[in-house]
Each structure stands twice: as structure tokens, then as C-alpha cells.
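Q: I'm writing a short methods note and want an example of a predicted protein-small molecule complex. Could you take the sequence and the SMILES for coenzyme A and return the bound structure as C-alpha cells? Please keep the output block clean; save any remarks for afterwards.
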Amino acid sequence: MTSRLTVSAGSVSTARRIIIIGAGGFGREVLQWARDAWPEHSPRIAGFLSADRDRLKQHEGSLEIIADPDRYEPQAGDALLLAIGIPIIRRKVAESLRSRGAEFLTLIHPTAIVAPTAVIAEGSIVCPYAIVSDSARVGAFVLMNYHSSLGHDASAGDYAVLSPYATLGGHAHIGEDVFMGMHASIGPGRRIGARSKVSANSCALADASPDSIIYGVPGRVGPLIH
Ligand SMILES: CC(C)(COP(=O)(O)OP(=O)(O)OC[C@H]1O[C@@H](n2cnc3c(N)ncnc32)[C@H](O)[C@@H]1OP(=O)(O)O)[C@@H](O)C(=O)NCCC(=O)NCCS
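A: Understood, no commentary inside the block.
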């Protein structure tokens, strides 16, 4: 599986401003992961895009909120990091920004382990201590939160979200926009259809069609009511 998306990739070395989309808790974490990954470029991390101007009120000394994502006009040299934790919102915001010509960065934390045979598509964020194993494929705009992992030959579709400690066994696959809660796991070779949700601490040991919810151990599969 490779991503079908063509993402306009920014380059951290030429970026004039690095901007984080989302000023919630995850946005603040991504700020730290970006500083860890690119210490020499961290003065160019300019701030956040958020619809809520007061989002950082309780966090004095944090960077500023530059604009609402809906109103932000990309400037030459701007490079964005997508720090939103819900797949459908990640997709909506990123698609809107891409249509306005925005360029995105891929962030891989220095403590993550990425096999040289693995592929990570543009716009994805790989957090501390995540593992992307041999020949694994990470789609575009995927979020791999800390300690999450893709086993050998496993793959995650565009916009999928792996919460902390979520894991895919070897050759397992999750489709586009799949959400995995904390400590959720997918058995080796199992395939989880697009837009499905795997509940926290649950283990999917059977395939699931698109728009499923999987919960429990072993995971029961039901239809997702949107
Ligand atoms: C996957 C998840 C997001 C789904 O949430 P949701 O869309 O609100 O869905 P619901 O909680 O309404 O669950 C839907 C159905 O599955 C059942 N279900 C979900 N998880 C379950 C579980 N672990 N055990 C038993 N039943 C479960 C619910 O009872 C519900 O059944 P019902 O419709 O018959 O009442 C949620 O279960 C979850 O895992 N949350 C944790 C998120 C997380 O880890 N975030 C980390 C951020 S860093």
C-alpha cells in the first residue's frame, strides 16, 4: 500500500515559518517533538492555527495563535504540521489547507525507530518511541502517537490515527481514517476497513469491514453509528 495522495511537501531546512495546526494538548506536544527533532530550526516555529483564540490562555509563555485554519492564507516559506487527533477532522482541515496551496512537513521524532525499508508518506507525524518496522508503510497524514508501532510489512492508510501504544502485528493493515485508541492492537495479517474505530485496550483478531467498531479482547466487531 502506498498513499494515493499527492502532498505538497515543505522542507524544514528552507521553511521560514513552521506552523502547528491545532493548539490543544496534542498541538503543544507536537511543539516539543518538533523542537526535539529540529533544534537548529526551532526559532522558526512561529505558532499555531486554531479557531479558538483563547486556546492557550492557561499556558503562559507558549507561542501565539497566528490564525483560524479556515482564514489562514499560506505564505511562501510556511510549512505546516498537522496536530489534530481525530481522523475525520485531520482530513477536513488538511484538505482545505491543501486546496489553498499549503505545504506540510513530515515529523519523525529522534527517538522513533524507522526501518530503512519502511516508507512514511508526507504530512505524517511519528512521535517519541514509535516503531515503524521492516517494509512497513505509513500513508499520508498518519499520526503515530508515542510508543505506537507498525510490525514488519504492516500498513496504515492516509489520515489513520494510532493513539499511544497502539500496535499492528506483521502484515496487518488499517484503512484510511481508522482510529485506534490507546493500547489497541491488530493481530498479524488482519485488515481493518476504512473509517473504523478500534476501542482502547481492544484487540482485533478478525478482519473488519469499513465503518466498524471493534471492542474487547478478542475484539467484537459491530457497525459504527456515525
Ligand atoms: C473507539 C472509541 C473512540 C469509540 O467511541 P465512540 O465513537 O464514542 O463510541 P461509543 O463509546 O459510543 O461505543 C460504540 C459502541 O461500542 C461499545 N464499546 C466501545 N468500546 C467498548 C469496550 N471497550 N467495551 C465494551 N463495549 C464497548 C459501546 O458500548 C457502544 O455500544 P452501544 O452502541 O451498544 O451502546 C472509544 O471506545 C475509545 O476507545 N476511546 C478512547 C480513545 C483514546 O484512547 N484516545 C487516546 C487519545 S491520546
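A: Remarks, as requested: The pocket of coenzyme A is lined by residues 85, 145, 163-164, 181-182, 197, 199-200, 202, 213, 215-216 (CB under 6 Å). The radius of gyration is 17 Å.
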